[in-house]
Amino acid sequence: MIKSAKDFFTKEQREDIRQAILNAELDTSGEIRVHIETTCTGDVLDRAAFIFDKMGMQKTELRNGVLFYVAVKNRRFAVIGDSGINAVVPEDFWDDLKNLLLNHFRENNFTEGLIRGVEMVGNKLKANFPYKAGDVNELTDEISFGE
Q1: Cβ distance 16 to 115 under 8 Å?
Q2: Which residues pair with 68 in a beta bridge?
Q3: What is the largest CA-CA distance in the chain?
Q4: Where are the beta strands (DSSP E) in the chain?
Q5: Which residues lie across from 144 on neighbouring strands?
Q6: Per-residue pLDDT, 60
Q7: How far apart are CA 6 and CA 66, in angstroms?
Q8: Pick from 21, 49, 142, 30: nearest CA to 89
Q9: pTM value?
Q10: Which tens digits make up the pLDDT trace of 21-72?
């Protein structure tokens, strides 16, 4: 039984996800965050948007941040991209990403799903927001947790 969001992933799984974020951000100015909560009351997209704002993800220079939000007890998730990335990805990108995550999550492969999702987003960020001299990591790569 899941006690809290912090207990959902092992230390090794958290590190694997963090490493996927580091790899995905390696050649891009884009920013990726993963936020895990125990439960989500209300609309999952509204909650993810609130967390996106609370984390200051809309403050990246090119507005190219992406948040993966997962509520583990509810088995609900959302992915939110800022206006910069939304302007350049194809219309079906977010649906394709959602389906990739859903396929993994249905099989209880949450770590693998997040890693593959982060890689997919990283590829789009690299294609549309390549690293330029002077780019800095604007947001932490650590997974954040809430209740």
Answers
A1: yes
A2: 34, 79
A3: 47
A4: 31-37, 65-71, 76-81, 144-146
A5: 35
A6: 87
A7: 21
A8: 30
A9: 0.94
A10: 999 998 898 999 999 999 998 999 999 999 999 999 998 889 999 999 999 9
